[in-house]
Amino acid sequence: ILVLCVSGMRAETVRYSVPEEAGRGSFVANIAKDLGLTGEELLARQARVVPEGEKQYLQLNQHTEDLVVREQMDREKLCGQSEPCLVRFEVLLESPLQSFRAEVRVTDINDHAPMFLNKEIVLKIPESAMPGTRFLLESAHDPDVGNNSLQHYSISSNDYFLVYTQRRSDGGRYAELLLDRALDREQQAEVAFIITAVDGGNPPRSGTALIRVVVLDINDNIPVFTQSLYKVSVMENSSQDTLVVVVSASDLDAGTNGEIVYSIVKNSEENFETFKINPETGQIRLKKALDYEETKTYEIDVQALDGGGLSTHCKVEVQVKDVNDNAPEVIITSLTSTLSEAAPPNTVVALFNVRDRDSGDNGRTTCELTGEQPFRITLLAADAYALVTSETLDREQVEEYNVTVRARDEGSPALSASKTLLVRLLDVNDNAPTFTQAIYTMVMSENEPAGRSLGHLSAADPDAGENARVRYSLVPPPTGTLAAASFVSVDAESGTVRSLRPLDYEKVPAFEVTVRAADGGSPPLSAQAVLRVIVRDENDNAPVLLHPPPDSSAAGELVPRWAPSGYLVAKVVAVDADAGQNAWLSYELAKATEPGLFRVGLHSGEVRTARAVTERDAARQRLIVLVRDHGQPPRSATATLAVALVDDFSDAFHQLGHDPASGQQPQIAEEEMLTTYLIASLCCVSSLFLLSVLVLTANTLCKARVRAELPPPSCYADGDFASDGVGVGSTGTLSPAYRYEMCLTSGSGRSEFQFLKPILP
User: Fold this and answer.
1) What region holds the Cadherin domain (predicted)?
2) Is the preceding omega at residue 509 within 30 degrees of 0, hence cis?
């Protein structure tokens, strides 16, 4: 979760500005526009402003999604004299979590006029002061910065004094009063005028104070400090009220003119806030703690004023001594956040410096790495280091490293700081894809339309990016083998296997192809697997009759009148090119002249008598046998059998010579034919009588001659009668256990055709 959150953060900082004292609800920026989002997206993702400090000066307008001022900001309270004055915050979005850093620069407006701490400044100047003498005045204070701060001083018109604006080393400005003309107490005992401090704002602001110059009677000795410059040092961890130095001045005058009062000249607010002086003893003490890292040296102007109004000045230079109160800082100057896993040892990952704001031993530092990782630190120069690899890397084992650099100083006690660097490894194509299975088995239905999905291939590559992007393909088969690659296709991206054309199970029950998975590296690496496709049979073939032949109108069978129940009449033989249940055949009697006389074996296809044959049964029987498979839906075929019931086999040809199909003609057609024959017979009866006498005579003569010429009778055993279409040979419809013997005389159409007996094995 942390990785996902960090990846959603944006490092860049958006900057805005707003003038100080802007009213509540004042517009700062259009956050939605700057972030590239719509107002609805900000609302849906619950955008909110999180300040860096405890107080929230800014907020999001829920209606316009603008960043507006929540509370007025006083730049002087927020930042004092520091510039620029920045208010930092973050805009947090959810779903997914994102953070946008932003900062608002509070620009200074000229909302403060320069102000003197004392509205009335009294100067006591002896009348003996020479023209050209300069007098240091109390400085005005303006909390604004830049051009809005105090720029110059001026005084109202008078006969004795001029004012000059001077600049200190820190940029502050102070006023010096110049005596332009000698004073004469007898003429004018006091000179009063207005001093004005003006800032650079637009419009400029100003502050005034009244300067009263009291002309003193001659005090010809001024106080004299024992040193014009006092140099002292103070530890930065010194507590409040610590004695810094004692200044001392003496005055040769007597009485009140010799009484000295010490004070710190208010030419620097920082000095005034940091130090205090005892006006009688000259002891300078701390008003607050010192910080060596902020200010290393202070220059204090101390004034000694005698009772006669004469004064002198000295400087006190305070050197702040460092103590080990700052931990080292690790400053990254260059970082390679992504590193190839093929990088050799000693590859530079980062350059960094270590800085300690302390001095001496407190500022001397050493560096080390925490934990066992394939990196080490190399010293380049003083406080400059390089982070380099110490051994070969493998992204597949560790994708990224959090390298912690710890810096420690040599102070007492020692202080340390750590910096964690995130180093991600870039992938190199050093791993081939791996199939999840060595053999994939998929099933497709027979006659399945092209384009159907049969399944998916899956291969994984532990590399990343393009090196892990697996593409699938079929390996071309060797020349001269079955072109199974033309039956299926593999989607290069998803590995989906699809059929290219319908297949016939009876021709191709199964096939195998070799598939390849190649990654996107350069050069690419690949692996192979076997794809085995099994064609599932569909019921697309109807049963095919082998006997009786499907091209014959009806197969003729002979059944004796004395046939008992269960007598084998014929056997219907059929095959189905399908497989499994689709090829399981069942037989049933679909239609019969006398349904109760015959039955068909469900699985054998044997047609047998269901009861004994009687004299009442019709001589010609027509049977329709239905052959059905067990597919879904089932397919079927029909076989038609013509059965002749005979007393003996002498009239077998006569019975079989009639087309059994004629029995299927309508009764009306038979009656019409019979009527036609009767009419023709009645019309020709006389002619036929005469013709019959002639034919009888000729027939008698012919028989006598033929009998004299005939050879002995011939007997037909098993297999000799098959060609006649009756089906009593080895390929007939009867069981091999049944055989017929027939004796016929050649040339006789209705001779003795005698049914003898079954020949048992």
Assistant:
1) 10-116, 117-225, 226-330, 331-435, 436-545, 559-662
2) no
Q: Decide if pLDDT at 757 tops 80.
A: no
pLDDT of residue 578 exceeding 60, the answer is yes
Q: Which residue among 197, 216, 235 closes a domain?
A: 216
Q: Do 295 and 340 fall into the same domain?
A: no
Q: Which residues contact 294 (CB under 8 A, 6 or more apart)?
A: none
Q: How many domains does the chain have?
A: 6
Residues 393-450 pLDDT 10s: 888 888 889 999 999 888 888 888 888 989 888 888 888 899 999 999 999 888 888 8
Phi–psi pair at 434, nearest 5 degrees = -130, 125
CA 645 – CA 569 distance, rounded (Å)? 11
pLDDT at 225: 93
C-alpha closest to that of 29 among 104, 106, 112, 113: 104
Domain boundary among 473, 502, 536: 536
Give, in degrees to the nearest 5, the angle at Cα 509 between 437 and 577. 155
Domain that residue 279 falls in: 224-321
**H helix runs in 85-126, sequence order:** none
CATH number at residue 53: 2.60.40.60
Instruction: Count CB-CB contacts under 10 A for residue 44.
Output: 13
Helix, strand, coil percentages in the chain from 3-state DSSP, rounded to 5: 15, 40, 45
CB neighbour list of residue 738: distance below 8 Å, 6 or more residues apart = 568, 758, 759
Residue 309 lies inside a defined structural domain of this protein? yes
Confirm whether 723 is domain-assigned: no
Residue type, 739: R
Q: With pLDDT > 70 as the criterion, what percentage of the chain qualifies? A: 85
Tell me if residue 572 falls in helix, strand or coil.
coil
Question: What pTM value is reported for the model?
Answer: 0.40
Query: Over 90: is that where the pLDDT of 249 sits?
Result: yes
Gap between the Cα atoms of 587 and 548, Å rounded: 14
**Assigned domain for 477 exists:** yes
Tell me how far apart the terminal alpha carbons of the chain are, to the nearest angstrom.
89
Report CA-CA distances (Å) from 588 to 138, 575, 602. 131, 15, 6
**Same structural domain for residues 440 and 413?**
no
Residues 468 and 491 in one domain: yes
350 and 443 assigned to the same domain: no
What is the three-class DSSP state of 255?
A: helix
Percent of the chain with pLDDT over 90: 18
Nearest Cα to 223, choosing from 301, 281, 309?
309
Q: Given this model, what pLDDT does residue 608 score?
A: 92
Contact at 8 Å (CB) between 559 and 644?
yes
Q: Output the pLDDT for position 276.
A: 93
Determine the 3-state secondary structure of 258 from DSSP.
helix
Q: Check if the beta carbon of residue 215 is closer than 8 Å to that of residue 189.
A: yes
Going by C-alpha positions, the residue among 12, 164, 141 that lies closest to residue 76 is 141
Query: Residue 321 pLDDT > 70, yes or no?
Result: yes
List pLDDT tens digits, range 515-570. Answer: 999 988 888 989 999 999 988 888 888 888 888 887 766 557 888 888 899 899 88
Structure tokens at 654: 């006569």
Beta strands 439-445; 526-536: pairing state: parallel
